[in-house]
Design goal:
heterodimer, A: 2 domains, two-stranded antiparallel sheet, 14 strands, 21% strand, elongated, B: alpha+beta, outer membrane lipoprotein receptor (LolB), chain A, 13-stranded antiparallel sheet, 13 strands
Chain lengths: 414, 242
Amino acid sequence: MRQTQKLFKVAFRNVSRNVKRTMLTALAVFIGIGVVISVRGLLNGLQGGIKDQVTKGALGDIQVHHADFETTTEMMPLDLNMKLDAKLVKLIKSHPEVREVTGRIVFGGVISDTSREKTTPYFGVAVDVDTVFKVIPLLKDNITKGAMPKKNDALEIVITEQLARTLNLKIGDDVAIQARTEPGSVNAFDFKIVGIFELKLATASKRMIYMPLHTAQKLLDMPQKVTEIVLDIKKLEHSRIVAASLQKTLTAAGYKVKVDPWEEVATLYSSIMGLQNMIFGIVSGVLFILVLTGVINTMLMTVYERVREIGTMMAMGVKRGKVVLMFLFESLSIAAIGSLFGLILGITVVEILHQTGIHFQFPGTQSVIVVRPQVTAVFIILSVVVAMLGALLAATYPAYRASQLRPAEAIRSS
Amino acid sequence: MTPKRYATLIGLLLLLVAAPLAAAPTPNEILKKVDDVLAPEKVTLKVAMMTHRSNGVEKTYKMMIYKRDTDLVRIEFIYPPVENGRKILRKGDDMWMQMKTLKRPIRIAAKDNFMGGDFNNADVLRLNLARDYDATITSQTADAWQLDLKAKNRSVTYDRAKLWVNKSGFILTKAQYYTLSGKMLRQLELTDIKSFNGHRRPSKMMMRNTISRKTWSVMTMLDMQVGKTLPASMYRPASLSR
């Protein structure tokens, strides 16, 4: 044991023998670790921002639809609906991970301006004004003027800025909304505009309107019915698991419904994130290999430089295994120095960016979200562990070469 | 022969030549006659419409249709009671709808479904075949014509149509409506010829959706009074709100 400690000391001293080269190799590890942590942090922040806007600002964490509903289609027929009564709400809420439930209707029709001369199609979302902000809290921030109607039976709507521009509308204006009812007839009500909201997602319809749920149920002649039930769950990361278990519960209770996590509804965003993660993985992998090549190179050079030394050590009775161990220690120390500083760099960059926040314009929209980079402790530990293991791996061949030297020849070599 | 006799002979000859000419109206004259049978210039109609949806639900509406001149039509719903107050107006190319829930009428599109059924608004409110289409006779039998129709301009709902018209009384028995690409959209069958105060016309019109095939709508003429209509002031959008 004491010998091993000594070996470690020797190894560490060896590291400081060629400071420039050690620094250079450690620098590679430092940059590698620093970049990987910073980029992951940035990606986490960006993806977190997108996830937040998608789930807490528009779609909710999990959606429940009629079994025949296609979530990838913008609008489905109204007869693919569900009766949302207290019993169903209670059943969904009985899941320990579900925090809040709200019903919506997605529908369409045409909206006429105040003069009734201009009409344009709209994409309607009827929301339960009592619960919608509990499930989709960020929606509140997206309303730039006015507010959501206070009562579920109010003849009031909130429209997008784009729709307001198209029809030259402002808060307080009267509009007429036409829609095809669920039984198939044509209905129309007068509404007052009480709010204007900004779209944060490029995939959302630019002609969206929000309408109180009971009013929409009257307009569409579908009392108590909704086309989607939107859930807020405790941990967004569990969306797929919770959706699957809710699917079982509801099917067992006789409901013909389909439960989808947000990833299945916002397929565009989830696949973009999947792609980002894949590219990040490839880049990290390449970086890892490059850094390791540097380490291998340094260690091989060290071995060749010290052939005579190794020979002498072995002649003095140091076992081959110990020689291997010494070089592994040396490589490990270089990686440790690099990792430590890389860690500090990465965490500092992420922390500074997290504090200041990056203003990120959503592609295809005018809206800006503040991205706050962050990394998990698990990721940091993992990246350091991977770097250390890599350094060990990189040193095995040079160390093995060193251990296979014949002392007599080694001492003689110049 | 005396000149008088000559004149009589020439007259008879002329008649012989002219008689077949008179009996063979031009395709566009046929369209005009078909229009006159189905929708005379001044008419009041009481109509029931049943719509059959793809989910099997059937709904019945009753309405009064008042037509004046070629392009003024006003419809007032009388059944079911919940539809009381729903009025639709066509003036030229424009259409409006008024309901109890609206302060002022809203514009509706000619190509939209009429009350969500298989007729579109133009089918009900804009029956001016002679004005909207150019016709050619593709075939004829002793008692019927078959006509091919091409829309005169793009604002017409259907780009092409085929009509089957009975020679006696210019009664339309069947119509098929096509897109420009030649895809059939709707098929109209007209049956149950009835005489309304001496005016003979089919009293049942069934419109089938030939694309979804699961839906159809039937219009039944309950009453028809030719020559009776509303005063011109009732064909202004503002009159709907009263």
